[in-house]
Amino acid sequence: MNYSKNIRPTEGELEILQVLWQKKQATVREVHEAINQYKEAGYTTTLKLMQIMFEKKLVTRDSSSKTHIYQPAVSREQTQAVFLDKMIDSLFAGSPAQLVMQALGNHKASPKELEEISVFLQSIKK
Questions:
Q1: Nearest-angstrom CA–CA distance, 77 and 3
Q2: What pLDDT is stored for residue 65 in this prediction?
């Protein structure tokens, strides 16, 4: 799907997308149960959010049976890119370097992660 930069999922929609990205597809009940493992949410709230997400084309829905099956229509990577672009522009004055330094300064990266970052930096220098 062509991801519109004007359509950014809300916090609640992101929670639902996280479940769908992990499970690949799920019913409203399955999504609701997954979210209820870490926070209390009403079933009708989950249902309404998923209906809105369908209208916004964030998810697809197979309604061929009584129980609708939802799948993410946007990838995790597309969603991360939209949010990251906005964050770099608005919080870091367009500087990816400031974002990276802030992230690495506030969160301790493991030696493996630092090696992956180093390899990535070398690959984009070429």
A1: 11
A2: 87
